[in-house]
Design goal:
heterodimer, A: about 250 residues, alpha/beta, B: alpha/beta, Rossmann fold, eight-stranded mixed β-sheet
């Protein structure tokens, strides 16, 4: 039986690691290389790195930093942020990162996902779905670090991403991200009920029970966590941590 | 020294990183002359079966890989798609595999259980099926990182050295004499992967 994957999702801003709340107010939490070394020792299941500035600033991925990270990692690694072309994805794979996570670019060029999946396999592409509640409390698809809204429904978009060739979905509730209040289980349930590929649930995990809820109630295949692994407790200082027991 | 075959498919950086960490010298190459000199061969691979076979033939590597594996009998390890390439064929494609171990590659099928997803992606346990130098010292808690949509089925049980369960057991590591295959990614599996690659470096 597959073990439940419990994945630190780490946010890059410049050369530093930050943590946001609802995709806003990035707070510096440390140096990515040191953090990776700690996670390596703790034998984490997997790591996801997201550059939160790359798309809004329209900048290239920070290949030098990613190469340094990859050199330290003996676990699966995913990177997302500012990937717009096949060549950029290729550079990231050559560094030794085996998955790319794509959101913003897929909205203008869905073929990018197909291009990457054809050469590197579907397992190499994570479709990123960021969801934010609108004024009326309805779920809306967003991208570009939640700066751009999309009209397409989440259901339709998942279908399109799967047809294009994503091997996995990372679903993030913008409203819950960084809040410690738990995953948006209704959203996760909805996504896992229609998705054919594995789903990583993200946004709001504040304790181990939230992770279990994501798997048991949300039916997610993996849960991504941020605050819980970079802070000691809500409102307290930075402490890189990872439970050594299997949930 | 382990020679890592570079045929344009897959993640050579991470395999090399881990071998470096455990103190094993490596050379990454697609040069036939250099491969002829290899003491040990590692065939990595990520992606589609036919695309990989096409690349191997494009670089004209089939004869030299056959020679090293079957004539010279150097230790030879295929990882992930590299292991599937050791089989005669795959349901993923139409081209012929290297056919170095009597086995075939077939698709996972879970029509009756939607909770079992494809690809089989994540950490899973391995169970020793036949003793092997590659898996010496493995204990019950050994787990590895898998990512694949197709699985290998050996013709003969004796060639299956590890088994893993995902909607039924499949062969997660295989061996025929000096030729080995691992379906999972040792280079992404922490100390467990280091153990396997250390074992391989000592064969």
């Amino acid at each position: 039986m597959l073990l439940t994957r419990y994945i630190p999702c780490l946010l890059l801003k410049g050369a530093g690691l930050v943590k946001t709340v609802k995709f806003k107010n990035p707070k510096y939490v440390g140096d990515p290389i040191n953090t990776v070394r700690i996670f390596n020792e703790k034998e984490v299941d997997e790591l996801i790195f997201l550059d939160i500035e790359a798309s809004p600033k329209n900048s290239e991925p920070n290949y030098k930093l990613l190469a340094e990270i990859a050199n330290e990692c003996f676990m699966p690694l995913a990177y997302g942020g500012g990937i717009k072309t096949f060549e950029q994805a290729q550079k990231i794979f050559n560094i030794g990162i085996e998955k790319v996570a794509i959101n913003t670019a897929s909205h203008s060029n869905l073929n990018l996902i197909t291009q990457i999946a054809t050469v590197y396999g579907t397992q190499a592409v994570i479709g990123v779905i960021d969801v934010k509640k609108n004024f009326f409390g309805k779920n809306q698809l967003v991208s570009n670090s939640a700066n751009t809204k999309h009209k397409v429904t989440i259901e339709e978009w998942i279908k399109k991403l799967e047809e294009a060739g994503v091997g996995e979905l990372l679903i993030t509730s913008v409203d819950n991200e960084g809040t410690w209040k738990g995953l948006d289980l209704d959203l996760i349930k909805m996504v896992t009920s229609i998705s054919k590929v594995p789903v990583i649930a993200h946004g709001g995990v504040g304790n181990e029970q939230h992770i279990i809820d994501g798997i048991k109630i949300g039916k997610a295949n993996a849960v991504a966590v941020g605050s819980l692994v970079v802070y000691q407790k809500q409102g307290m200082g930075v402490l890189i941590n990872y439970p050594n027991k299997k949930l | 020294m382990i020679t890592i075959i570079n045929y344009g498919m897959g993640n050579l950086g991470s395999v090399q990183n881990m071998l470096k960490r455990i103190g094993v010298a490596t050379k990454i190459t697609s040069d036939i002359k250099e491969i002829e000199q290899a003491e040990k061969i590692l065939l990595p691979g990520v992606g589609a079966f036919d695309a990989a076979v096409r690349k191997i033939d494009e670089y004209n590597l089939r004869p030299v890989l056959n020679y090293k594996a079957l004539e010279q009998k150097v230790p030879f390890l295929g990882i992930c798609l590299g292991m599937q390439l050791l089989t005669r064929s795959s349901e993923e494609g139409e081209l012929k595999g290297l056919d170095l171990i009597p086995a075939q590659t077939i698709k996972f099928k879970f029509e009756n259980d939607p909770s079992l997803k494809i690809p089989h992606m994540g950490w899973n346990f391995v169970k020793q099926n036949n003793p092997s130098k590659l898996t010496e010292g493995f204990t019950e808690d050994y787990r590895f990182y898998f990512v694949h949509s197709y699985k290998v089925v050996c013709d003969n049980n004796e060639n299956s050295i590890l088994k893993t369960n995902h909607g039924g057991e499949f062969d997660s590591a295989i061996q025929k004499e000096n030729i080995f295959g691992a379906q999972f990614h040792p280079e992404k599996s922490h100390k467990y992967g280091m153990h396997l690659l250390t074992n391989f470096s000592k064969i």
